[in-house]
Every structure is written in C-alpha cells, then in structure tokens.
Amino acid sequence: MLRTPPDEALVAGRWRRGGGAPAQSLDPATGSPLATVHAVTAEEVAEAARAGAEAAAEPVWRDLLPHLRARFLHRVATLIDDDAEHLAALQTADTGKALTETRALVASAAGTFRYTAAALETAEDALTPSRGAYVTMSVHEPIGVVGAINPWNSPVASDAQKLAPALAAGNAVLLKPAEWTPLVSLALGRLISTALAEHGLPPALLSVLPGPGRIVGDAIVRDPRVGKVAFTGGTATGRALARAAADKLMPVSLELGGKSPTIVLPDADVEQALAGVMFGVFSSSGQSCIAGSRLFVARTLYDDFVGSLVERVRKLRVGPGTSPDTQVAPLVHPAHRDSVAAYVDLARQEGARVLCGGAVPEGPAYDGGAYYLPTVLDGLPGDARTCQEEIFGPVLVALPYDDEEDLVRQANNSVYGLACGIWTRDHRAAWRIARRIEAGTVWINTYKQFSISTPFGGMKESGLGREKGRDGIRAYQRQKSLYWGTSTAPLPWAG
Ligand code: NAD
C-alpha cells in the first residue's frame, strides 16, 4: 500500500521543495533510502508565519461558526480514515514501527480530529457572576499563529494531538516534524490542505516545515508572529526551547521525556503483570515517552517474577514492522540503535547483570536494519545513570523493593514524572500508591491505554501543561474578560 513518499514542504499554503539542505529518510528495517526531503530555511519559516497570521485573520476563518469549523475537522478525520492503510505503511516505513501499532496510531489521529470537533461544538464561554451595574463574561480567542514541534516516535498521532485543537481554536499552525521522520507529517499535511481547499478556507492556515531543530524549530520559536509553541520531545530540547520562549514571554506546552516506574505488588496477578510489563516497555521497541522502563518488584516475588519475565522476553519476536508476527520492530535509525547499545555498555560498566538481550540480533534477516534485542538488566543501584536517564529503547532495569515506603521512595527517585504502572489485586494499596507517585498518568492493572478525553502530560522534568481532553482546545486560546455596563446610574466621576 506504500505510494511514492511525499518530498515537498508546505510553505504558506504552497507545496514546494524547501530551500535548505537535503536529508534522506531511511527505512530502518533495511537501511534503504525512502525519500529525500529538503529542509526549509529560516526565511521560509518567516514567510509561513507571515502568511499564517494573514490567513488566521481572514473573516472566512476568524468568524467561522463552531459547527462549520467542526465540519472541516470531521472532513480531515474522514480523509485520514480513507487513507489509513497508506499512512500506516508510510509511518512503518519511516519509523520502523510495527504495522499493528501504526494502524492504531492512524486510527487515533482520526479519532482525535473527531473528538476535537465534538468538543469544539460543545465548548462554552462563561457568563461570570455579575453585579447590578454590569454583566461580566469570560471568552476565549485564538492566539493567531502557533508552532507545533514534534519528535520522531509517533508522528501521526502527535501531529493530530496538536493540529486538531490548534485549528479548532481558530489558529494557523506551523508544524515541524522531526528530521528522521518527516514523511507522515507531510502526507497528513496533504490531507489537511485538501480539506481546507474543499471548505474554501485559506491554504496558509497550515505549513509543514521539515528541517533541523536548531534552524527550523528555532526560527519557529523566535518568530515574532508565533504566539505559542506546543512541543513534544526530549527534556534538554524542551528546556532550551522554554529559554528562547522566555525572551518573548511566549507560552509553551512541553511534553518531555520519562523513566517511568512499573510496579508489581506481592499480590499481583502474575500472568497479567508479566504481559503488561513486557508490553509497557518493549512495544514500540521502547521508543515511547511513557515506556515503563524501571521495574520494581516486591523482594519476596523478585527472583520468580524476574526469572519468568526473562524467559518470556527471550521469546519476543524481533523483526520488520511490516511482518504481522513482529513484536519488537527495529529502532528508528542506526544512530539511535548505537545510542541504546552505548547505554547497555554503560550499564555493564556500572555493574549491571544483563539477564537477556544486550546485543544486536544476528542473521541475514537483520542485515542493514537498526535492530536491538529486548534487554533486561538488574543488579544496579537506583542512582546509576542507567536507572536515571531515558534510554528510549528496548531496555528494562529491574529493582527489588522491601515495603511500601521503600517502593514510593525509589519510584519517585527520578527527575521525571510522566507515567507509572501498578499491578495488584489490592485496590486500597493501588489507591495509596497511585496518589503518592509523582507522575502525570498512573495505570492500574493496565498500561499504555489512552483515551483522547483524558488529559495527558508530565510532572517534574517530564513537562509543562496538558494535551487532550475537553480543555485541550483552551491551550491554544487566550482568555479575555468583558465587562458590559447595564446601569443608567451615573458613573463615579460623571459631572
Ligand atoms: P528532540 O528533543 O531531539 O526533538 C524533538 C523535536 O524538536 C524535533 O522536531 C527536533 O528537530 C526539534 N528541535 C531540536 N532542537 C530544537 C531547538 N533548539 N528549537 C526548536 N526545536 C528543536 O526529541 P526526539 O529525539 O525527536 O524524540 C525523543 C524524545 O521525545 C524523548 O525524550 C521522548 O521521551 C520525548 N517524547 C515525549 C512525549 C510526551 O508526550 N511526553 C511523547 C513522545 C516523545
């Protein structure tokens, strides 16, 4: 189902080759080239921002009634559904992810546009408690032009998560995909361009601007017309971006890294916990911000549980994302595979026992691909770099704990606070622990389940702000208070 991948940027409503340096997209399963996409230049970012500001101010968009804007969002959802197999195949080709996963991500992107359309139609402004002399209101208005900067791990879903609410809120958007994976964002841009044209809306409401973060991302953040940036990516980049945004006093939302604890209490359903822990860290080959990459098991259960886990991890099927049997697909890029391998070498130097994996798989099936075996480590102190830093690959560190106090202390011993999993039959213990863990999302007897209506975001260095949920649209608006005088009585200084 893979058609010729897109290779043009969308600048100010026009498709064209970017004026910057070329970059080659690779299929991580084979290392073979997929497409050459030219970066846009900083000047092209400025052009997109200028045209976006004009488009956002056009009455046909600015004054569009919510149910008509919702109709446009529904159309985008339908176009995504109609092109679902191609989008999934393209994302598998560009990121390496298993087709089962990319199909689910494409479906979730369409769902995000539908949910946002419904939320938009039901969003209300508030009439606030008023005194006799005036009526007061709180209303929400678009920001104008917003930037959306995304990483490479789940582009179609993370693009939809920003584009749908930002457009619903009435803005123009400058979308910047990651350098390794621009293709699916460009394909999504084509669909949104089509929907804009069908509805007679200004084409410059969306620009898709591929290229390096330090040129294209930085130009988006610093452009004076850009009034907000929604960023998903690494914590170091998020911090640098927030510093640049501070110069303009511009709001940013930051969805950043994680090193999430997954916790097995002594009374857990062991079969369920084994499956959940493996899925939580090894699906997406661990390239997931919410990967449950630190496993805490009650000491009384530790040897048995970790032993059974290792036995099963050894049987996980490693292969190309296109094979329906594959459970652990290649990593996004050979350079990223090397960074994961370097972390496992570091773990060895830190004194880890490598219980399984810890190597690149061998055999002709893996030639040229960016594969790495699912790996379980233990024997490390919680302060080891391997237990503290985000590896973003198929690597799990197992640690025993003694009692609830020890567990909570160890689980919270992280600069990150994105997610947590708890496996137990004891609902009281689950409640107590869930409330004490510093994480934006806690799953109990499940992991990596998502609902578009439930807000998502991190605590501590995992981020600022929340995406999704009914308030998702509000994150792309500015609030204004209106006072409307209703009294005929003279004002205080009336003559
Ligand atoms: P990254 O921070 O290197 O890059 C993310 C994006 O920022 C890319 O588009 C990049 O080109 C751009 N960028 C880089 N430097 C920039 C700059 N100076 N100014 C503006 N933009 C710049 O992250 P990555 O390696 O692409 O992705 C992996 C990271 O993303 C992991 O840390 C992962 O946890 C995180 N992530 C977080 C979430 C979440 O929701 N919390 C979701 C997915 C991924």
Structural topology:
Elements: E1 9-11, E2 14-16, E3 22-26, E4 33-38, H1 42-57, H2 59-62, H3 66-82, H4 84-95, H5 99-122, E5 126-128, E6 134-142, E7 145-149, H6 155-168, E8 172-176, H7 183-198, E9 206-208, H8 213-222, E10 226-232, H9 235-248, E11 252-255, E12 261-264, H10 270-282, E13 294-298, H11 299-315, H12 334-349, E14 353-356, E15 375-378, H13 385-388, E16 395-401, H14 404-411, E17 416-417, E18 419-423, H15 427-436, E19 441-444, E20 459-460, E21 463-464, E22 477-485
Helix pairs in contact: 1-8, 3-5, 3-7, 4-5, 4-7, 5-6
The chain binds nicotinamide-adenine-dinucleotide.
Nicotinamide-adenine-dinucleotide is lined by residues 149-153, 176, 178-179, 213-214, 217-218, 221, 232-234, 237, 240-241, 255-258, 289, 390, 392, 418, 458, 463.
